[in-house]
Specification:
The complex is a heterodimer of chains A (213) and B (307). Chain A contains 13 helices and no strands. Chain A is mostly helical and 213 residues long. Classes of the chains: A mainly alpha (213), B mainly beta (307).
Chain lengths: 213, 307
């Protein structure tokens, strides 16, 4: 009875599914080797894909991304005395360098699909359109940074390792206050890598939020 | 009895009535930076949109000196060149001055003998031509101070312990951004002579035959009325200026603060160089002094030791 059913389903299944259901007999060793190699290929592929698409060259292959990239190039985060440069992904994709934060990174990558859709639709494909959307985009990033306690900044900067004696008094005082108040980098350091949106500058003039970027 | 010596460069008018100055070599020297403030009136300083430190000043009671002693030179350079300053990227000097330094390194020393306060200020002659505004005086050096406050207290003038001379500097003064009256001089909001809400002002002037000024700033600047200034002298030694003030601790005139032990006084200096007037001066940040009094942890405090 069972045999009859098996034959029936075998006939209905395609070759591959059939092979999966009835795998050919093979040694445990062979299974392990195939499993390990397969794992390396899959994980390595994911990682390579992640890192490949984290390169600024990849980001700027969409021409509209040249706009913020050129702004970054004018700042100390790109060109400086010690040659430690931040790339797009260091702030926009970076995990917090904690072992369990890979999911966040992967999630950011998935969200980046929105940029691809935007590119196809041409949402910000001219400087004028980019400017029109700058405030919305900036707020999105500021919000995320704030939520994550500016982890992307803290991958390189940390209150713990700051030497107040090497900072200007005003910076040392500000950082001391920021620690007291539990503030996070982005609250004061907006516009350190890209131009501030005109709407935000307008807000500043009205006595709104502050930025010292 | 008011006797004032003529403050003629290099001329010392000796008189038995005058107490002797201390041995300055034994007095602690304090380095300061006199910088060009442009149109940074109190309203600019206290407007968050212009100056990101407003919450620090208001909520955390931070003084100007606490943040800016280190970079006052950079601030002065930035302002005098007309470069954008602060959060709002304001051009605080609408008419940039290319031939003048943005700041002047200076030092002061202070001492007392139980009768008088002695102040000595030195600075290098900064480069730059004459503004030609003050025809009589090429150089003027002023000191301004408040009525002091006891430990744990606050000065009569709001913000004086944080902003120093800026409590007298406003956007609507002559030569300032919102000036409507070219006679309007420094003033203090809510000033009251009998409530101690005024700044005492003493000034040395370089002009031949010019008398030192012993005045005050209340609802306007008054350049007379004080009885505390015994002497103000100035001289140029090579490229260096030295100005000394002798001022009684008692004061006693109109607009004179009494200087007494136990209190902390807020003060600052202003240098009008090259015949400058109004905003075209170099100023110090806020400092504090007290007589034979140690204050821990305040780097802009100076202990005036009895000699």
């Amino acid at each position: 009875m069972a045999d009859t059913q098996d034959n029936k389903s075998t006939n209905e299944d395609s070759g591959l599914i059939n092979r999966l259901k009835n795998p050919p007999k093979c040694s445990m060793l062979r299974m392990i080797v195939i499993g390990v190699l397969g794992g390396i290929v899959i994980w390595g592929g994911l990682n390579t894909g992640m890192e490949y698409t984290n390169r600024s060259e990849f980001c700027t292959s969409c021409h509209e991304m040249q706009i913020p990239f050129n702004e970054l190039k004018q700042t100390v985060h790109y060109k400086n005395r010690s040659g430690a440069a931040a790339q797009c992904a260091d702030c926009h994709v970076a995990s917090s360098k904690t072992p369990t934060d890979y999911m966040f990174k992967a999630f950011q990558k998935i969200l980046a699909a929105r940029d691809v859709i935007g590119h196809i639709k041409g949402t910000i494909d001219t400087p004028e359109k980019f400017e029109a959307h700058r405030y919305t985009m900036a707020q999105r990033v500021w919000e995320r940074l704030k939520e994550r306690d500016s982890k992307e900044c803290r991958n390189c900067h940390d209150f713990k390792y700051m030497d107040p004696d090497k900072q200007k008094d005003r910076s040392a005082v500000k950082h001391e206050g920021a620690v007291e108040d539990g503030k996070t980098c982005i609250e004061c350091h907006k516009g350190v890598s890209h131009h501030l949106p005109k709407e935000y500058l307008e807000q500043l003039k009205q006595g709104g939020e502050k930025s010292e970027g | 009895m008011k006797k004032i010596a003529l403050a003629v460069m290099g001329v010392f008018v000796a008189s038995g009535a005058f107490a002797a100055e201390p041995d300055w070599s034994k007095v602690t020297e304090r380095k300061i930076k006199l910088f060009y403030p442009g149109q940074s009136g109190l309203e600019w300083i206290m407007n968050k949109a212009d100056h990101s430190a407003v919450p620090d000043i208001v909520d955390k009671k931070r003084a100007c000196s606490k943040c800016h002693e280190g970079d006052a030179n950079e601030v002065g350079d930035k302002i005098i060149k007309g470069n954008p300053a602060g959060n709002s990227k304001t051009q605080l000097e609408p008419k940039p001055i290319s031939d003048r330094a943005g700041w002047v390194p200076a030092t002061f020393k202070m001492a007392h003998d139980g009768q008088n306060l002695y102040v000595r200020v030195e600075w290098e002659q900064p480069k730059g031509g004459s503004f030609g505004m003050d025809k009589k005086n090429d150089v003027k050096l002023a000191m301004m101070f408040d009525g002091g406050f006891a430990d744990g207290g606050a000065p009569a003038i709001e913000l004086a312990e944080r902003a120093g001379c800026w409590v007298t500097c406003h956007n609507d003064l002559r030569s300032m951004k919102d000036a409507k009256d070219d006679k309007k001089t420094k003033y203090i909001k809510g000033a009251a002579l009998d409530g101690g809400k005024f700044m005492d002002l003493i000034q040395w002037r370089s002009g031949k035959g010019e008398k030192p000024v012993d005045g005050y700033i209340a609802d306007k600047r008054v350049m007379e009325g004080g009885k505390g200034l015994v002497k103000a002298e100035g001289k140029k030694e090579g490229n260096k200026w030295v100005v000394t003030f002798t001022r009684t601790l008692a004061g006693g005139g109109t607009g004179d603060h009494k200087i007494e032990p136990g209190k902390i006084y807020d003060f600052g200096f202003a240098l009008h160089d090259g015949g400058a007037e109004a905003r075209y001066h170099y100023v110090s940040l806020n400092y504090q002094f007290g007589l034979d009094k140690t204050v821990e942890g305040v780097k802009y405090y100076y202990n005036v030791v009895k000699q």
